[in-house]
Design a protein that fits this description.
alpha/beta; Methionine_synth_MetW; SAM-dependent_MTases_sf; about 35% helix; Rossmann fold; about 200 residues; Methionine biosynthesis protein MetW; 8 helices; 8-stranded mixed sheet
Protein backbone atom coordinates (compact mmCIF):
# COMPACT_ATOMS: atom_id res chain seq x y z
CA UNK A 1 0.00 0.00 0.00
CA UNK A 2 1.27 3.48 -0.87
CA UNK A 3 3.14 5.31 1.88
CA UNK A 4 0.65 8.19 2.02
CA UNK A 5 -2.16 5.66 2.51
CA UNK A 6 -0.18 4.02 5.30
CA UNK A 7 0.02 7.38 7.07
CA UNK A 8 -3.69 8.01 6.54
CA UNK A 9 -4.52 4.56 7.92
CA UNK A 10 -2.83 5.43 11.23
CA UNK A 11 -5.23 8.36 11.64
CA UNK A 12 -8.40 6.26 11.38
CA UNK A 13 -10.05 5.09 14.59
CA UNK A 14 -11.23 1.45 14.75
CA UNK A 15 -14.87 0.89 13.90
CA UNK A 16 -15.21 4.22 12.09
CA UNK A 17 -17.47 4.98 9.15
CA UNK A 18 -15.21 5.83 6.21
CA UNK A 19 -15.92 7.17 2.72
CA UNK A 20 -13.01 6.96 0.26
CA UNK A 21 -13.44 9.24 -2.76
CA UNK A 22 -11.56 8.04 -5.81
CA UNK A 23 -10.73 4.80 -4.02
CA UNK A 24 -9.26 3.09 -7.12
CA UNK A 25 -9.02 -0.67 -6.46
CA UNK A 26 -9.81 -0.23 -2.77
CA UNK A 27 -6.43 -0.97 -1.19
CA UNK A 28 -6.98 1.50 1.66
CA UNK A 29 -10.54 0.36 2.32
CA UNK A 30 -9.46 -3.29 2.31
CA UNK A 31 -6.64 -2.56 4.76
CA UNK A 32 -8.87 -0.56 7.10
CA UNK A 33 -11.62 -3.17 6.96
CA UNK A 34 -9.22 -5.94 7.90
CA UNK A 35 -7.07 -4.08 10.42
CA UNK A 36 -9.54 -1.64 12.00
CA UNK A 37 -12.97 -3.14 11.33
CA UNK A 38 -14.24 0.04 9.70
CA UNK A 39 -17.56 0.39 7.90
CA UNK A 40 -16.22 1.51 4.55
CA UNK A 41 -17.65 2.82 1.30
CA UNK A 42 -15.79 3.91 -1.83
CA UNK A 43 -16.63 5.91 -4.93
CA UNK A 44 -14.57 5.35 -8.09
CA UNK A 45 -15.20 6.71 -11.58
CA UNK A 46 -12.96 4.20 -13.37
CA UNK A 47 -15.11 1.17 -14.14
CA UNK A 48 -12.27 -1.35 -14.17
CA UNK A 49 -10.79 -0.12 -10.89
CA UNK A 50 -14.23 -0.07 -9.26
CA UNK A 51 -14.83 -3.62 -10.48
CA UNK A 52 -11.59 -4.80 -8.91
CA UNK A 53 -12.56 -3.19 -5.61
CA UNK A 54 -16.01 -4.79 -5.69
CA UNK A 55 -14.40 -8.16 -6.47
CA UNK A 56 -12.55 -7.84 -3.16
CA UNK A 57 -15.90 -7.72 -1.39
CA UNK A 58 -15.77 -3.97 -0.78
CA UNK A 59 -18.75 -1.63 -0.90
CA UNK A 60 -17.75 0.56 -3.85
CA UNK A 61 -19.93 2.65 -6.14
CA UNK A 62 -18.94 3.18 -9.76
CA UNK A 63 -19.73 6.84 -10.32
CA UNK A 64 -18.72 10.47 -10.19
CA UNK A 65 -17.72 11.72 -6.75
CA UNK A 66 -19.53 15.05 -7.22
CA UNK A 67 -22.83 13.35 -8.00
CA UNK A 68 -22.61 10.47 -5.55
CA UNK A 69 -21.54 12.48 -2.50
CA UNK A 70 -24.65 14.65 -2.77
CA UNK A 71 -26.81 11.63 -1.91
CA UNK A 72 -25.37 11.24 1.59
CA UNK A 73 -26.91 12.99 4.60
CA UNK A 74 -24.97 15.28 6.91
CA UNK A 75 -22.42 13.57 9.16
CA UNK A 76 -22.98 10.16 7.57
CA UNK A 77 -19.27 9.32 8.02
CA UNK A 78 -16.52 9.82 10.56
CA UNK A 79 -13.88 10.29 7.85
CA UNK A 80 -14.04 11.23 4.18
CA UNK A 81 -10.78 10.62 2.32
CA UNK A 82 -9.51 12.13 -0.94
CA UNK A 83 -6.01 10.79 -1.64
CA UNK A 84 -3.88 12.00 -4.56
CA UNK A 85 -6.93 13.23 -6.46
CA UNK A 86 -7.34 16.88 -5.46
CA UNK A 87 -5.20 18.05 -8.38
CA UNK A 88 -7.77 16.54 -10.77
CA UNK A 89 -10.82 18.07 -9.08
CA UNK A 90 -12.69 20.70 -11.10
CA UNK A 91 -14.17 22.55 -8.11
CA UNK A 92 -12.09 21.91 -4.96
CA UNK A 93 -14.03 24.34 -2.79
CA UNK A 94 -17.39 22.68 -3.45
CA UNK A 95 -15.99 19.18 -3.02
CA UNK A 96 -14.20 20.02 0.21
CA UNK A 97 -17.35 21.56 1.66
CA UNK A 98 -19.30 18.45 0.67
CA UNK A 99 -16.66 16.21 2.25
CA UNK A 100 -17.02 18.10 5.52
CA UNK A 101 -20.79 18.10 5.29
CA UNK A 102 -21.09 14.32 5.05
CA UNK A 103 -18.03 13.61 7.20
CA UNK A 104 -16.95 14.66 10.66
CA UNK A 105 -13.35 14.86 9.41
CA UNK A 106 -11.82 15.09 5.96
CA UNK A 107 -8.42 13.75 4.93
CA UNK A 108 -6.66 14.99 1.80
CA UNK A 109 -3.30 14.07 0.27
CA UNK A 110 -1.68 15.60 -2.81
CA UNK A 111 1.70 16.05 -4.54
CA UNK A 112 3.57 19.15 -3.41
CA UNK A 113 4.23 21.14 -6.59
CA UNK A 114 6.91 23.34 -5.02
CA UNK A 115 9.28 20.51 -4.13
CA UNK A 116 12.82 21.69 -4.80
CA UNK A 117 13.31 19.37 -7.80
CA UNK A 118 10.32 20.93 -9.55
CA UNK A 119 11.67 24.39 -8.82
CA UNK A 120 15.09 23.50 -10.22
CA UNK A 121 13.59 21.99 -13.37
CA UNK A 122 11.65 25.17 -14.05
CA UNK A 123 14.65 27.36 -13.26
CA UNK A 124 17.19 25.55 -15.43
CA UNK A 125 15.04 24.19 -18.26
CA UNK A 126 12.20 26.71 -18.41
CA UNK A 127 9.80 23.81 -18.94
CA UNK A 128 6.85 22.47 -16.97
CA UNK A 129 8.37 20.05 -14.46
CA UNK A 130 7.98 16.28 -14.63
CA UNK A 131 8.72 13.90 -11.78
CA UNK A 132 7.72 10.52 -10.38
CA UNK A 133 4.99 12.35 -8.47
CA UNK A 134 3.87 14.35 -11.53
CA UNK A 135 4.81 12.00 -14.39
CA UNK A 136 2.99 13.71 -17.26
CA UNK A 137 3.66 16.25 -19.96
CA UNK A 138 1.53 19.39 -19.81
CA UNK A 139 -0.53 18.21 -22.80
CA UNK A 140 -1.51 14.76 -21.50
CA UNK A 141 -1.77 15.27 -17.76
CA UNK A 142 -5.04 14.51 -15.97
CA UNK A 143 -4.04 17.12 -13.40
CA UNK A 144 -5.70 20.50 -13.79
CA UNK A 145 -4.19 22.04 -10.64
CA UNK A 146 -0.80 22.37 -9.02
CA UNK A 147 -0.84 22.57 -5.23
CA UNK A 148 1.96 23.76 -2.96
CA UNK A 149 1.59 22.73 0.68
CA UNK A 150 1.73 26.35 1.80
CA UNK A 151 -1.08 27.32 -0.58
CA UNK A 152 -3.29 24.50 0.64
CA UNK A 153 -3.00 25.92 4.15
CA UNK A 154 -4.09 29.31 2.79
CA UNK A 155 -6.98 27.64 0.97
CA UNK A 156 -8.22 26.06 4.21
CA UNK A 157 -7.99 29.42 5.97
CA UNK A 158 -10.00 30.99 3.14
CA UNK A 159 -12.72 28.37 3.63
CA UNK A 160 -12.67 28.70 7.41
CA UNK A 161 -11.78 25.02 7.66
CA UNK A 162 -9.57 24.09 10.63
CA UNK A 163 -6.51 21.93 10.01
CA UNK A 164 -6.65 19.25 12.69
CA UNK A 165 -3.44 17.50 11.70
CA UNK A 166 -0.90 17.65 8.89
CA UNK A 167 2.10 15.61 7.83
CA UNK A 168 4.55 16.22 5.01
CA UNK A 169 6.25 13.18 3.51
CA UNK A 170 8.93 12.28 0.99
CA UNK A 171 7.97 9.32 -1.17
CA UNK A 172 7.34 8.52 -4.81
CA UNK A 173 4.01 8.17 -6.56
CA UNK A 174 3.23 4.52 -5.74
CA UNK A 175 6.04 3.65 -3.33
CA UNK A 176 5.39 1.80 -0.11
CA UNK A 177 8.46 3.37 1.51
CA UNK A 178 8.88 6.98 2.59
CA UNK A 179 9.73 9.32 5.43
CA UNK A 180 8.18 12.22 7.28
CA UNK A 181 9.60 15.68 6.49
CA UNK A 182 9.60 18.15 9.37
CA UNK A 183 12.06 20.79 8.11
CA UNK A 184 10.94 23.14 5.30
CA UNK A 185 8.20 20.79 4.05
CA UNK A 186 7.13 23.13 1.25
CA UNK A 187 10.63 22.69 -0.19
CA UNK A 188 11.55 19.10 0.64
CA UNK A 189 8.28 17.14 0.89
CA UNK A 190 6.88 15.42 -2.19
CA UNK A 191 3.39 15.04 -0.68
CA UNK A 192 1.25 16.77 1.91
CA UNK A 193 -1.41 15.02 3.98
CA UNK A 194 -4.02 17.02 5.89
CA UNK A 195 -6.81 16.15 8.29
CA UNK A 196 -9.52 18.81 8.24
CA UNK A 197 -12.36 19.57 10.62
CA UNK A 198 -15.78 20.98 9.93
CA UNK A 199 -15.97 24.74 9.52
CA UNK A 200 -17.34 26.54 12.55
CA UNK A 201 -20.86 27.73 11.98
CA UNK A 202 -21.89 31.25 13.01
CA UNK A 203 -23.37 31.26 16.49
CA UNK A 204 -21.96 27.82 17.34
CA UNK A 205 -19.96 29.14 20.31
Amino acid sequence: MRFDLQVIATWIEPGSRVLDLGCRTGSLLAHLTEEKAIIGTGIEIDEEAAGQAIAKGLSVIHGDIYEEIEDYPDNAFDYVILSQALMQVLDPETLLREMLRVGRLGIVSFPNFTHYRNRLQMLFTGRAPMSKELPYEWYNTPNIRVIPIIDFRRFCKHLGVPIVKEVAISTHHHDEQGKVITWLPNLFATFGIFMLGQARRPGSD
